[in-house]
Amino acid sequence: MKVTPLRNDFGVMIKPQPMSERWRDLDQAHLQQLIKTKGVVLLRGFDFEIADYEAFTLRFAQKMIPNRETFAIPNGGYRDREDVSGDSLTATVNLHKGPIGWHSEDCHLPTSPHLLFLYCESPPLRGGATLLTDGIEIFSQCDENIRDFLTRHAHLHTWTLPSASVARMLGVALQNVEEAICRLVESLPTGQKLEIEFTTEHIIARFTEPLARITRWSQHKAFCNRLLLYRVLRQAKLREGAASSVVDPTPSEDFEDVLRVIDSLAYLSAYHVHWQSRDLVVFDNTRIMHARAPILDEQRRILIRSCIANF
């Protein structure tokens, strides 16, 4: 196989040697090491079908995570993603065609995945690139004042979900939700905090995550969260589902200037995935943020799976 860097600071692309390698021949330990050290692995030119994509993800998973955006809503539709596999483990990415800002997948939830796997079933004719950026590089490039701000502040998320949806997210029976949440609280990484209130049919959670997090496979701090995405949502006067998020403690008036600096650094560090058929990208969701350029045609179909890693 041929391994080339995506950027100097993160990511690699792996291509097979002509007529010689299939995806099942890829060395598992080598791929794990690349994920740990490089953050992103783009597999291009391999013989992935959807069933292969799903089998590939299971190699890295202690537990696959259901995609909450596919859960049915009262009118019988889907929130914003299509359930492809019938169990919410394989889904389309967001179905709307607008741009999506920088974010770490579901990091506003204590069930956020370690790894994301994106698969290109059908590439766009134009537009629709997925952008990846390195949170470690962003944090290291910030000046001392901004790094201090990020270290001292946290993101406080408050959300309300039906108990049945929480049970589905946790992969347990409804009567076992409280016990599963207790186990989840005990397993949270340093700096995260979860407070739960149970009502008759809903669960109200207050989840705190640091703005500068330690990544899963290093001791480096990274800016890898949803702060820049929420900035866009606030500007568009939108809310994400049943969640609200605030920075704690309340930042000073120059907070918007801090966000502009970080947003600029994210784009300066970005790699643009211009999709080709059967591309598969796996990346560290505790280190790498992703975003999306506007979709300009009807051809693009990207699938997503995520997991708690087994390494």
Q: What are the main properties of this structure?
A:
311 residues; alpha+beta; Double-stranded beta-helix
In CATH terms, the superfamily is Clavaminate synthase-like
CATH second-level architecture: 4-Layer Sandwich
Rg (CA only): 19 Å
Number of domains: 1
Separation, N- and C-terminal Cα atoms = 23 Å
Determine the structural class based on helices, strands and strand pairing. alpha+beta
Helix % is 25-40%
Number of helices, counting only DSSP H or I runs of 4 residues or more: 8
How many beta-strand elements? 18
> Residue-averaged pLDDT, rounded?
91
- What is the CATH class? Alpha Beta
Element-level helix/strand string: EEHEHEEEEEHHEHHEEEEHEHEEEE
What is the CATH T-level topology? Answer: Double-stranded beta-helix
Overall shape: it is globular
